[in-house]
Every structure is written in structure tokens, then in C-alpha cells.
Here is the input.
Amino acid sequence: MEKIAIAIHGGAGTLDPSALTPEKEAAYRGALSAAVRRGHAVLAAGGAAIDAVEAAVRVLEDSPLFNAGKGAVFTAEGTHEMDAAIMQGSDLRAGAVASVQNVKNPVALARLVMEKSGHVLLSGRGAFEFAHKQKVELEDDEYFFDQLRYDQWQEVRGSTETRLDHSTGEKKFGTVGAVALDAQGHLAAATSTGGMTNKRWQRIGDSPVVGAGTYANDATCAISCTGNGEAFLRAVAAHDVHALMAYKGLSLEEAVRIVVHEKLPPLDGEGGMIALDKHGNIVLDFNCTGMYRARIDRRGEVVAIFR
Ligand code: ASP
Here is the structure.
């Protein structure tokens, strides 16, 4: 039981400490703590890493504070198109959904894609049809409405600008994710997002793409990313950490440092990632001012936002 560990994130970005009122900070910290504890409880009861990451991400999807599930940003058409992925390190099985609407917990749908579809990635209308068939919980558009996200959209509505989730003076990625190591030594990762405000043409980011925003392999590590999705896709960021460990023998910390601080910045890849290796080491790293994050391992619980 000693080595069970879990880490989560609720997005990274250029965060302005003065914009974070004590009430807002307490709300974020409370939500992060609730999510990481939910996931940890699964592991502590002897549950699988895949169940732990799904449980933790569901809590974050249900919170309007983050850009995933309830609280997902608006597209150019005023809808919510969500992306999610889940992967288990023991056999490299993975499931993902892209551009899905009205699904309460996209991560749960991604899990069903992994287990029941015979495929890895379903998108748009097809993913919705599959969701319907699997009887996953659906919600009407109203459920996904959030005034802050709506106001963010109004600022760019009608233009061709695609924006990150932001509040005045801030530029943040509100994607959520989790990585976990269970008592059997298996790793898993999950990521869920509403993508970018005012996105068009069914734009899909890195989050649902295996190897870009999400990756897990028992041989090395589990990774969930947040940041400018286009850059993370081009860098194949999550898999690159795995590759540096597998082929170069680097430690988790060094592999994450190279990807986050050397490979992503030249591609305008602002953001960060949470990473966990098979020994239970956790690395939470980012190349911007902050990342909403939490972890529980043998040393206890830590919740943090800024560096
Ligand atoms: N990576 C996400 C995307 O590009 C955004 C985020 O991390 O908030 O869709």
C-alpha cells in the first residue's frame, strides 16, 4: 500500500495572484482537495489506478470552476464541445472522445470507448450516438451554462480569435487531469477539457490524443497535460516524456523538465503537466506562472496553485 500515489491538475497558465480573492482561492483549493481525495480513496481501498483517475476527473468535471464538463468554455457557435481521454499503463489500452456535446462526464464516456467500442477515439455525432447507446448520463445545454464562460465568449464572439480560458489579466488553461499508481503497481492517466473559447470547425486539442495530452505506460510513467493544445500535439508531449525515460533511461523529473522547459517553449507551448512514475515519484511542472494542482502520496496531501 506504501507506494500508492495520485496527482491531479485543474489547468495551468499566466495566473495573476491579485485576481485570486481569498474566497476564490479557497473554492479552487477545496475542489482540488475533494478530487484528489476521491481518487486516493479508490487506491486506498485497493482499487485500480484507472478507477482512481476516472473518479478524480469526474469530481473536477462536475465543478464549474474548471474548463471540463460543467464549466466547459463556449465554442464559436455558443455550444460546448468537450474532449477527454483515459489510458491504462498495464496493457496500453486507451479510450477517448472528441467534440462531444451534452455528455455530463466525458471521461466516463472515454472509459466506455476503451472497454466497449473496440476503438480508441470517437468524435462528434458518432461519439454522442455511442454515449446514448451506453446510457451515459446526458445533460441539456443549460447544465453547461456558466456566466463567467459566457462573458469570456462575448469578448471574442463574432471574431476569428480563439482564446484560452481566461479572466481579466489572466490567460489560463482550465483543463483537468489525473495520474495514479495503484497497489498492484499499475499506472493510469486521464484528461478532460472544453478546449478553447470561440473554437471553430470542431477544433480538437491535445487532451484526447493518446501520446499528446494523455499517456500511461507501466514501464515508465503516467502523464496528463494542460496548455496550448496545438503545441502539445506537435511536441507529442506526453509520449515524449515516456520515450526519454524508456530509450534514454532518464528519471521522471529530468524527462519532464526537458519536455516542459526545452521542447515546448519554442513551439509556443505554454502550460504544464502532471507526471507519476512506477516507483510513486510525482512531478508537477509548468513553464507559466501557475498550475492548479494537488497530490497525495506517502508524504501526505499537498494542494498548490502558484510556484
Ligand atoms: N490543452 C487544452 C486544449 O488545447 C487546453 C487546456 O489545457 O486548457 O484543448
Notes: The CA atoms of residues 164 and 196 lie 5 Å apart.
